[in-house]
Amino acid sequence: MKGIILKYKKIIISLLVIMLSIFLYSNKPYSLYEINYVKKVSQDKIENSKLFYFKKIRTKNIEPDTKILIVKKNQNLSTILKKANLSTPRIFLKKSKKNCFYRINVNDKIIIKNKKNNITIERNNKFLRCIYDSKNNSIKKIDKKSANKEKNKGKDNDQHIELFVFFNDIKGSFYNAAINSGLTPNEIMSLADIFGWDIDFSLDIRNGDSFGVVVNRYFSNSKHNRSTIVYAIFKNKKKFYEAFRYKEKYYDSNGGSLQKQFLKVPLNFTRISSHFNKKRLHPIFKTTRPHLGTDYAAPTGTPVYSTGDGTVIYKGRKGGYGKTVIVKHGNIYTTLYAHLSRYKKGLYVGKKVKQKEVIGYVGSTGYSTGPHLHYEFRIRGVHKNSVKMKFKKDKKLNKNAIMKMKNKHKKNINIYSWINKNYIKFYNE
Question: CB under 8 Å to 66, separation ≥6 — which residues?
Fold first, then answer.
């Protein structure tokens, strides 16, 4: 019997490895790169689908009042303009060598812009570019060399927008789940910023949490250069948070602002190495001393933000705190940021800082066992546990503003509907 087992040992092990691989692959998180491209989502598909998907929309950077015509055989400028429902301007009646519209060639590109009673006509080919402006009744002639410069310049301005939708559930790390969904590191940071007033990403994230994000990606010369989150939904501890972008801020569906008076944490993606504790055993001096702040472990050089709008009232070394910054917020609140490796360039006492503005970088100066940020929150000089603090939100939008916000997002309503009817339902099962 042992001989038979040894004989087929390699085969049995190979089969087990294959079965394990199949199991792991079938249970891994969904990724953007495994999802089919969807041009249009019908209502039936929205209601019946339980699959993740993304929608991609490309919009060309062409002005609505612009017409582009290519010169064909037996066509002159008059016939071209007539085709564009435009009468020939008087300057074109002067047939002279100086007028570079006098002789047009086959395959020349004629671009006509009619905006606010100002007509611009452009003749464009490989060697020459001429622009007629009706406002001052003049013609601008650009030679081959200049035309090539303009052409190359235009490539950089050849921008378009693509709309993406990303989803995933969280198993272990939020950052890894977001990367696996197809989000970029900058988009992940933006998502954390949006919900940073309600969710502490160092403490509150749990297995089974999930998110859905609608992102506008901006491309220039086929290269992705920036992104804007249009809509986001986050499930955390069985509670759902929703964010609609409106006038560069984020609101829920009822017009309530997601932005609060103070951020919950002053830096991104950290763990708490030491909590607020009035009777903590000091790690260096081995004596019981009050720890009147929260320590966030993070790599040296991690940016540290001001948690609210305020004025810098202290910048310098402060005993065991090491390099420290203190910010005053009105007449009631102050926040302290200690053990910094360095300050933000241009920071000085008296400088006005905005919420989420970088003021320094994580370090280990002063009495410290490793790189971290020591953060304190005080109300009228009294130390408070920032983790347990609840802060006021910005003002709610009025009815007219809510209507404007909803109308702005109306074109994406099928996507939001799909998220709410299927994605959330899927994770509630």
Answer: 111, 112, 113
DSSP state of 209: -
Q: Do the beta carbons of residue 288 and residue 279 sit within 8 Å?
A: yes
Burial of 219 (0-12, 13-18, 19+ CB in 10 A): middle
Q: Rounded to two decimals, what is the model's pTM? A: 0.50
Q: CB neighbours of 5 closer than 8 A, spacing ≥ 6?
A: none
> Which CATH number fits the domain 33-59+159-259+393-429, given the four candidates 3.40.50.1860, 3.30.2130.10, 3.30.360.10, 3.10.450.350?
3.10.450.350
**Is the domain covering 271-388 a CATH 2.70.70.10 domain?**
yes
217-271: per-residue pLDDT in tens? Answer: 888 877 888 899 999 999 888 888 889 999 888 998 888 888 777 888 899 766 7
- Interatomic CA distance for residues 173 and 189, integer angstroms: 14
Q: Are 356 and 364 spatial neighbours (Cβ–Cβ below 8 Å)?
A: no
Question: Dihedral sign, CA of 335, 340, 343, 344?
Answer: negative
DSSP 320: G
